[in-house]
Amino acid sequence: MSNEKKRSDKVKWEHVNNWVSRRGLKTDWKVFGMPEILDPFTSSFVDVDPMPKWDIPQKIMISTTITGAFFSKRSNPHHPITVDEIRDSAEKCILAGAPNIHIHVRDDRGYNVLDPQRFHDVIAPLREKYPEVTFDGCLVAVNDHESSLMESTMKMGLFDALPVNTTALCCGDNMFFKAPHVVIEKARLAQEAGCKPIIAVYTDGDIDNARRYLVESGVVQGPCYWILLPALPGCSPMHNPQQMVDGLQRMVRAIRDFDPNGFLMVSAAGRASTYLATFAMLLGLHVRVGMEDTVWPYPHRDEILKHNVDHFTQVRDIAKLLGRELMTPSEYRLAINMPSVRA
């Protein structure tokens, strides 16, 4: 016997049929708010908005990352690696309306490097052509030589903002750890160089590190600028929609507990990708897109990204469909209390 038949046998059909014969299939309906059936703006009984407007910012920031430190051409043959590829990909995004570009550079082998000349060769020509656009860059020093270049690279006038990772995790097959003295001093140096610190967090623990070492210590004054980077291997897991929803909301609440007015940007990372960015936009947050943090535009399909500009325009158009407008560079500067355009 089918489940449908079993369910049907539990109905007391004789009683149902008796009432159908007495009353038919009429709906009991009395309208107490005539002439309106349902007034969307008020009530006939109380002067209260029945469906309040959501507190969602009209403007949204969409930052675009170009290459990052993780993925190679072996993972994605379209990934920009050389200075020319990175600069050209960034310019295509700018021409499509991207107000902010996030830059890493790679060495001749394709690995992330802190190289002042390569940063200059990517950013300086773009700054000259597009002076309103903002640039931030990830200065990750992995040896003594790169560490010695950190402060001078910050002061080259290339960057409007700089991420400070408050992290200790195994990302993929790599240990990624920023010791407390690195976190604190990098944040101090960034501000001394006139750059806005972006607190970069991958897990709940990173958020608490930021609270301890940067915010409540007074090294960085709130409201702070945050970039949330879950969904990569070793970061806050988002391997299905439920994990994505629960995980992002938990991270946001943890930050709001001590920085209620912070500027929160969520990276479209890993398999979660565009779905995570869309959920973030539904929550009224800002987003970062691009090939640094993912190789896929969709979590349930195997196609890979071919161009950064494709990911930017895709998420830009989703934002527009959600009724949110892309920030201009000047609006972005104002929103995060960033210094004005660099000379």
How would you characterize this protein structure?
By secondary structure, this protein is α/β, with parallel strands linked by helices. It has a single domain (59-335), classed as TIM Barrel (Alpha-Beta Barrel), CATH 3.20.20. It contains eleven helices and 14 strands. The protein has helices at 3-9, 13-23, 83-95, 116-129, 144-154, 180-192, 204-215, 241-256, 273-282, 308-321, 329-335; strands at 59-60, 62-65, 100-103, 105-106, 112-113, 134-137, 161-165, 168-171, 174-177, 196-201, 225-228, 263-267, 286-290, 325-326. The strands form four sheets. An eight-stranded parallel sheet has the order 6-3-2-13-12-11-10-7, with helices on both faces. The protein has a two-stranded parallel sheet with strand order 1-14. A two-stranded antiparallel ribbon has the order 4-5. Helix 9 packs parallel to helix 10. It is elongated. The N and C termini lie far apart (79 Å).
